[in-house]
Amino acid sequence: MSRCTRTRNLEVHHIRRDGGNGLDNAKVLCQPCHANTTSYGTQGNSPEPFSQETKDKALKRSGYQCECVSNSGCH
């Protein structure tokens, strides 16, 4: 599977809306990949934002790179 290699405009995405704000529910995506997720911009209850500490840990874990592995051409 190919991986997006973008390192700019990174956002921390909730994998599941009801999955909480822990690191296990965080995925780093560039803005175009984030906008391509099925839940981005949809109506409904939005989860609470991640803490800065969780964002920092997610970014470090990802190597400061988008974690998208979609082959559908996210951008």
Give a short summary of the structure.
The chain has 75 residues and is α+β, with helices and mostly antiparallel strands. The chain has helices at 31-35, 52-62, and strands at 10-14, 26-30.
Write the layout of secondary structure elements.
Layout: E1 10-14, E2 26-30, H1 31-35, H2 52-62
Antiparallel strand pairs: 1-2
What tags apply to this protein structure?
about 80 residues, alpha+beta, two-stranded antiparallel sheet, 2 helices, 2 strands, globular
Account of the protein in words:
The chain is α+β, with helices and mostly antiparallel strands and 75 residues long. The protein has one domain (10-62). It is 21% helix and 13% strand. It contains two helices and two strands. It has helices at 31-35, 52-62; strands spanning 10-14, 26-30. A two-stranded antiparallel ribbon has the order 1-2. The relative contact order is 0.34.
